[in-house]
Amino acid sequence: MHSGTIKVTLTAENGREIILYRVRPGEVCLQTFGCLVNGTSYSAEGQAETDLEIDIVPVGEFQRLVVQDADFRQQLFAAVATRFADLERLVEDVALSPIDARLARALLRMMDEQGQVTATQEALATEIGSVREVVSRQLNAFARDGLVELTRGHIAVLAPNRLDQLSHPAV
Amino acid sequence: MHSGTIKVTLTAENGREIILYRVRPGEVCLQTFGCLVNGTSYSAEGQAETDLEIDIVPVGEFQRLVVQDADFRQQLFAAVATRFADLERLVEDVALSPIDARLARALLRMMDEQGQVTATQEALATEIGSVREVVSRQLNAFARDGLVELTRGHIAVLAPNRLDQLSHPAV
DNA sequence: ATGAAAAGCGTGACTTAGTCACATACTTAA
DNA sequence: TTAAGTATGTGACTAAGTCACGCTTTTCAT
To answer: Which of A59, A104, B21, B124 is most buried, judged by most C-beta within 10 A?
Structure first.
């Protein structure tokens, strides 16, 4: 019934961009939740990453569903809770984690079963709220340590376990 | 009926701390919203800043109120929307704004009608997700430019308008 | 097919922010 | 009134971000 993902990003005046979170199939997208409730508008921007197949719920219908449809309510609340968790994790990441840990986590999140990550360094930078140059240097540092192997447009993760250690709160 | 404020903070392993948002009188506190919905727990920590007088709503009661009490629902959704806006602003701040702008915004937010801010530099640092030393240096830079006057435990804002300019997206 | 443009990556030099270590001044309470 | 705790200032260093390039690979129009 639903398919495709939406990434919600924030863009600064200087062009720097950070991914706030992603909305996945089966989730309720809350981008306009503020509007539904009190007309608040977000500065964030949603962008489809793939072809989309979604249901759009008009405001009146939304109000009705919340009251009458326990299932909808459940999904809605779950979506809200997930967004909170995502955003809190993001704040923690950006404000309090060093870049090597953030990059390590991103690689682990994004790699497939074969340990392949298909993404440009630019995309990785946006993913972790940093910039290409920093990602480039850090990836090369990882590569020097034998943690990954780099080729244009993707990264092969050689030592997921060691990345995982890095990704954890280094004391 | 309700009084006092709660600050919700995130603390890293290294002891660095950042304020996620505040819950004010009349607002619904969502700290445990995840729990209400699906048992997710937050890593964030709530802390009363003043004496509190609050209503605590048990889970069963919550479910009932959401369905039956339109007013409660309205308040709840408003709280959710506010939190989102807060968190998005915070991410934007931390990830994309230089610290002079962040500090300027914090001072403007926190000052009273006489332009007095009563807070230690340590507290200001937590407020903007930075550290004391950086705040100290930045405040002294502001002072050198005649924007503020510093005394132990508080800051006198002399030129709110110029701070406001600083606080805006410097191109 | 080929040459130009665009996309992706690497890197040096520099700026800004955060860390560490320590000095100094003010405040409070025994 | 002095010792302990709190608040601040500062130099030296590290980490991250910015700026300005250059180089290679891919894409695409002709």
So the answer is: A104
